[in-house]
Design goal:
Chain lengths: 201, 235
């Protein structure tokens, strides 16, 4: 089996659900003939074990965002590079992201938001692994990251003070409700591909 | 950033704007295509996000023409109007019902629902060999978590007490009620609990709060009816 296949992919190949496209092309198709898996992510980026480790679980329980995101950066979680500048309120992206929440003057609420996002990220990674999603189980796509952000923003009542509208368009990478995947080359090149025709050559 | 990337981004943005704004052309409702279905969702609902199936199959894109996903927030008060025992808050946060639909092939849906894939939490094996089990008072439900706690930051809710060697039902929804997470900050008293079902051929994820999980069957039925209403509105 090619090296880019994870254990859960191998099970799906063995069960006949996925089959190799051709001997030459590094891709697998599902029974509908749609490309469901390619080597695109593994070929271009280095990923470590994406499972949430016991140490990361302690960081989450303690609300320690800095330690958690630094640990995730070490295993090649592409969202860590987005989260850390926001946590540090550093750089243009970090400062703008915090500013857009409207909570910059309220560090306690901003931190509460950040803790909830950290927890939802860990849950999304775990479910992604359980469901063997995409080319790299445990690595999220821009769309998946946007989804949990929007749930958290909705629960916290984050709205757009800029346009006086609801905050549904807020999230780095999905500004103005444009598709999250559109921004892949800007902020998340190492994010996973999901869905049919994933990473087709 | 290289100029060609900026150019691609700008052109893509124009096309994406067309795709995204098309559903909003109806002043009263969002019209969303998902797989072979079209949903007309009244615009008083908060459409959190959507991935639109593109007009063309583009190599490297994340969705086929018949693919896509969307996520809608339904106010807790609306759920309560149909289910009077639905609690509209958990802790200090609202118990908003979030419904997420994704177009997936039937094989993947069947594989995801398979009970054996969650056997470890039922048997307290593997990652759950050192898990903590905590009954949820007055519900008959159990929290199971491999995180420090209680209270846990992330946990699963089961409708039976885990036990080594018991038979694993064919679908995990027969024993695993939801995947839950703490909400409201570091010591927050709220929750986000999600579970997924095959509803009319779509992979449907429902997000509610732990204190509403005893109403799961009714919540699922409410969601099914709401989705059918939104499909019927298009006709």
């Amino acid at each position: 089996m090619p090296a880019y296949l994870h254990t859960c992919h191998q099970r799906r190949v063995n069960s006949g659900e996925l089959s190799r496209l051709t001997r030459v092309v590094e891709a697998y198709v599902n029974r509908q003939g749609e490309i469901a898996l390619t080597d695109q992510n593994e070929r271009l980026f280095d990923y470590g074990d994406q499972r949430i480790t016991p140490q990361q679980k302690v960081y989450i329980q303690n609300g320690n965002r800095r330690a958690f995101w630094n640990a995730r950066k070490k295993v090649g979680d592409p969202i860590a590079s987005v989260a850390l500048p926001i946590l540090e309120d550093a750089g243009v992206n970090g400062k703008v992201a915090n500013w857009l929440t409207g909570l910059r003057s309220n560090p306690e609420k901003l931190n509460a938001l950040g803790v909830d996002l950290m927890i939802e990220h860990a849950k999304a990674v775990t479910i992604d692994l359980e469901n063997c999603v995409g080319n790299v189980p445990g690595v999220l796509s821009p769309e998946q990251v946007a989804q949990y952000h929007h749930v958290v923003f909705e629960k916290h009542g984050i709205s757009s003070f800029l346009l006086g509208s609801d905050g549904s368009w807020l999230f780095g990478g999905t500004l103005f409700n444009l598709p999250a995947n559109l921004y892949r080359p800007v902020w998340c090149r190492a994010c996973d591909f999901i869905g049919p025709s994933v990473g087709a050559r | 950033m290289k100029s060609w990337k900026l150019a691609v981004l700008a052109v893509s943005g124009l096309f994406a704007t067309m795709f995204v704004l098309a559903p909003f052309s109806n002043a009263d409702a969002y019209q969303l295509r998902l797989g072979g279905d079209t949903f007309c969702i009244p615009d008083h609902y908060n459409l959190l996000d959507q991935t639109v199936a593109p007009a063309l199959d583009i190599a490297g894109s994340d969705s086929l023409r018949v693919g896509g996903s969307f996520q809608v927030a339904i106010p807790a008060e609306e759920v309560e109007a149909s289910l009077p025992t639905y609690q509209t808050t958990h802790g200090k946060l609202p118990a908003t019902l979030v419904v997420r639909l994704e177009a997936l092939d039937s094989d993947t849906i069947a594989w995801r629902l398979h009970g054996e894939r969650h056997a470890d939490v039922l048997h307290l094996l593997g990652e759950f060999s050192g898990a903590t089990v905590q009954p949820i008072d007055h519900t008959g439900l159990f929290r199971v978590s491999d995180y420090p706690g209680p209270p846990f930051p992330i946990w699963k809710v089961l409708n039976r007490e885990p036990e080594a060697g018991i038979d694993v039902p064919s679908e995990w929804k027969q024993f695993l009620v939801a995947h839950c997470s703490r909400a409201g900050g570091h010591k927050g008293g709220s929750s986000n609990c999600e579970y997924s079902e095959d509803i009319d051929g779509h992979w449907t994820t429902v997000i509610t709060t732990e204190n509403n999980l005893p109403l799961k069957a009714q919540i699922t039925q409410f969601t099914e009816l709401k989705l059918r209403q939104w499909r019927d509105l298009c006709q």
